[in-house]
Design goal:
Helix content is 31%, strand content 20%. The chain is an alpha/beta fold. It folds into 2 domains: 4-118, Cobalt-precorrin-4 Transmethylase, domain 1 (3-Layer(aba) Sandwich); 123-237, Methyltransferase, Cobalt-precorrin-4 Transmethylase, Domain 2 (2-Layer Sandwich).
Length: 252
């Protein structure tokens, strides 16, 4: 079967994070779809492939995001089934907090087409660099913010805690771009079970332009619900001290 799909990551920063392998897929593409975080990034991709098709149009106010994601996958797969060499470009890493690339690749492979994922520099990679955070020093747990509310999780307060999409915390409609302070307070109340009210929370947003700087603000946990947040904001909680040492002869 002649159709082929490559989901590639363009990284977080305009033009600076594209790998040679990802660029090779772009140059070989017959059809290019894009779902990126900044209109300038989309414009830049269009200079590399003038026939770019934006996936942003599948979003609509009040439309549940899962429905938008299915429509994106359908658009991508239609071109693959037509026998074309298709590339779908996503901001950051196409496999990190991105449902469409995983779903599109799975659907293409199930239909018998070749499909690959090309990694990119994710927001997590930028976060580690900008905050000087080594996940191997104390351990590091990553959760989608609302996931932490829905699922029964036991937090390790001696490890770093990274909460993604904190600006949507508490929203269960999947149809808005920002949750309310009351909904975010649900997250704060959950975290207060394990952390003191004054525990520092770093609000992080990766830089997307070479002339820009990342957002790095610190607020006490008690103020998180009313802090300025967006879909791009990630909350980072440092460990509450070092973990106790395992006893001699006890399993680690």
């Amino acid at each position: 079967m002649s159709g082929h799909l490559a989901c590639i990551g363009v990284g977080m920063m305009l033009g600076a994070h594209l790998t040679p392998r990802a660029r090779g897929h772009l140059e070989a593409a017959e059809v290019l779809f894009a779902l990126v975080s900044d209109p300038l990034v989309e414009h830049w991709l269009a200079t590399l492939h003038p026939g770019l098709r934006s996936l942003q149009g599948h979003y609509a106010e009040g439309r549940p995001r899962p429905q938008s994601y299915r429509a994106m996958v359908d658009s991508i797969l239609a071109e693959v089934r037509a026998g074309r060499r298709v590339v779908a470009a996503f901001y950051g890493h196409p496999g990190v907090f991105a449902r469409v690339p995983h779903a599109a690749i799975a659907a293409a492979r199930e239909a018998g087409f070749e499909a690959v994922m090309e990694p990119g520099i994710s927001a997590a990679d930028c976060l580690y660099a900008d905050l000087g955070l080594d996940p191997g020093q104390h351990g590091c747990a990553h959760y989608e913010a609302t996931q932490l509310l829905i699922e029964a999780r036991r937090l390790d307060v001696h490890a770093w805690l990274v909460l993604w999409q904190v600006g949507l915390a508490g929203d269960r409609s999947h149809a808005v771009r920002e949750s309310t302070p009351a909904q975010r307070q649900e997250l704060v109340d959950r975290l207060l079970r394990d952390y003191p009210a004054q525990h520092p929370v770093t609000l992080y947003e990766a830089a997307t332009l070479p002339v820009g700087r990342p957002r790095i603000d610190t607020v006490p946990l008690a103020a998180l619900a009313t802090a300025p947040l967006s879909m791009a904001t990630t909350a980072v909680l440092p460990p509450r001290g070092r973990a106790p040492q395992a006893g001699v002869g006890n399993p680690c």
